[in-house]
User: Fold this.
Amino acid sequence: MPYSKFTLQKAVEDFQLTIVEGSRFLPEIPSIAPTALLQDILKETIPWAIAVSSEKARSEGIINPVLLEVKRQLKGQISVFSGEEFNVEPEAELTGYVDFLISRSPEQLFIKAPAVILVEAKKEDLKPALGQCLAEMVAAQRFNQQKQQPISTIYGTVSSGTVWRFLKLEEQCVTIDLTDYPLPPVEQILGFLVWMAQEI
Assistant:
């Protein structure tokens, strides 16, 4: 079963998770100024992605450039995967393709542990994607354990490109920040993502 079949309720029940929902769980994180390259790209792609308004346009035109900027800001010490197959536990239905995945390994040819951030792209309504993103986060948690590189926190975000919502998974507890963070401006989102990619 692909990750897209998971609702929030199914993910919580199947993986015996506890949900904490509410306000921001991220600490005060400094914003990061984008490079001129990202500024130029977003100046062109944000209006285009909004006008076309498909999931693919938002994913390619906004989310992917932002994630590649995170890689740039961290001097290539992470890897960013797009549309990659991520089959972790078929018996638990943790199979399928992820929109975006960030690993702390700089290797780009295949996904190497530890996987730290899962990004699910959606056209507009973010709520239905929370279950899918959460299932992918559980898969990342188990993938890291299988590879003997467990980490305490897996982060997830569901995004339309212009709106971002964040989740974190610690053991069996998932925290969902019900704040929608806008882009533009890109500085705050960049700060969050760089911090998550570095956080140990």
About this structure: The longest strand covers residues 163-170.
